[in-house]
Specification:
The protein is α+β, with helices and mostly antiparallel strands and about 290 residues long. The protein folds into 2 domains: about 1-50, Helicase, Ruva Protein, domain 3, CATH 1.10.8.10; about 60-190 and about 265-290, Tetrahydropterin Synthase, Chain A (2-Layer Sandwich), CATH 3.30.479.20. The protein is built from 12 helices and 8 strands. It has helices spanning about 5-15, 20-30, 35-40, 80-85, 85-100, 105-110, 120-130, 170-185, 195-210, 220-240, 255-260, 285-290, and strands spanning about 60-65, 70-75, 115, 120, 135-145, 150-155, 160-170, 265-270. The strands form 3 sheets. The protein has a 3-stranded antiparallel β-sheet. It has a 3-stranded antiparallel β-sheet with strand order 6-7-8. Strand 6 and strand 7 form a beta hairpin. It is flat, with a radius of gyration of 23 Å. The chain starts with a helix and ends with a helix.
Length: about 290
């Protein structure tokens, strides 16, 4: 199949590999981005890093902790100027409190929630018209807890990144610390038991191929090779999992050790613009665009 420049660019941004290497990978994998990523890793060209999408959209995240309910939202704007606007910030608070109070099942249900006689979608649309930019309520999460459980929340960079967690057998200080760690380190899973089998199988296949191409391992017995592979897999999976990560405040111990008997029951993290793209403007152009409104 013909490989477009857009696909090459996307793979290059995900892997940091060279343009020609990305093109070869895409050609070998019929344009499949994920398979191409693995192909590059198997060839030693791409590192086993998180495939973070480009973060470009503006806006804010916010959270509410209200008794046995916690909520977190992301609302997007077109520019960072608006994200710093007091009216926009008030809108984000309204969206978050409305979600926390009503606990909607999904985004469509959330947009139909009543806010002083108007549905939330109308409130957002009116704010958009007043502020002069397209505003969108992108996503939310709601958690509920028992009286003997505890929430923790942490917001960073003025609301550009927020994390909330629910813990058992822990206090509020530990819960906030874990939320801060989740915000900073972005674990994908709570522990290795939560990793889907398909993810484990895929990583096993990648490591098997990498080891097959390693000349220094050719003479090793099968039992030794299995041990080496287990070690490699554990290293990769530990980096994905909250409980296995080095705790951000005391790096010599893991999160699990810091928590002791404490258990993380749920976690969620929003960073503004994850997985979204917008037109990239330089600062002068953005100022000029704002002045022209």
């Amino acid at each position: 199949m013909a490989i477009s420049a857009k696909l090459v660019k996307e793979l290059r941004e995900k892997t940091g590999a060279g343009m020609m290497d990305c093109k070869k990978a895409l050609e070998a994998c019929d344009g499949d981005i994920e398979a191409s990523f693995d192909w590059l890793r198997e060839k030693g060209i791409a590192k086993a890093a998180k495939k973070a999408d480009r973060i470009a959209a503006e806006g804010l995240t916010s959270f509410v902790l209200d008794g046995n309910t916690a909520a977190m939202v992301e609302v997007n704007s077109e520019t960072d100027f608006v994200a710093k606007n007091a009216e926009f910030q008030e809108l984000v608070k309204t969206v978050c409190s409305t979600v926390a109070t009503n606990k909607p099942a999904d985004l469509d249900a959330a947009l139909k929630l009543d806010v002083d006689g108007k549905d939330l979608a109308t409130v957002i649309a009116e704010a958009s018209g007043k502020i002069g930019e397209k505003l969108s309520f992108r996503r939310f999460v709601v958690m509920t807890k028992e009286d003997n459980e505890v929430f923790g929340a942490y917001s960073h960079m003025g609301g550009k990144m927020t994390a909330i967690v629910k813990l058992a057998d822990a206090d509020e200080e530990k819960a906030r610390d874990i939320a801060m760690h989740v915000a900073a380190c972005n674990p994908e899973y709570i522990d290795q038991n939560a990793i889907p089998q398909e993810v484990k199988d895929r990583e096993d296949a990648v490591q098997t191929e990498i080891m097959a191409q390693d000349e220094s391992l050719k003479s090793k017995p099968e039992k030794v090779l299995e041990g080496i592979k287990r070690g490699k897999l554990n290293k990769v999976f530990s980096a994905m999992c909250l409980m296995d990560q080095e705790f951000i405040k005391t790096p010599k111990e893991t999160v699990a050790k810091y928590l002791g008997k404490g258990k993380v029951l749920e976690m969620a993290r929003f960073q503004v613009g994850e997985g979204m793209e917008k037109k990239v403007e330089n600062f002068a152009e953005e100022v000029a665009a704002q002045m022209g409104k």
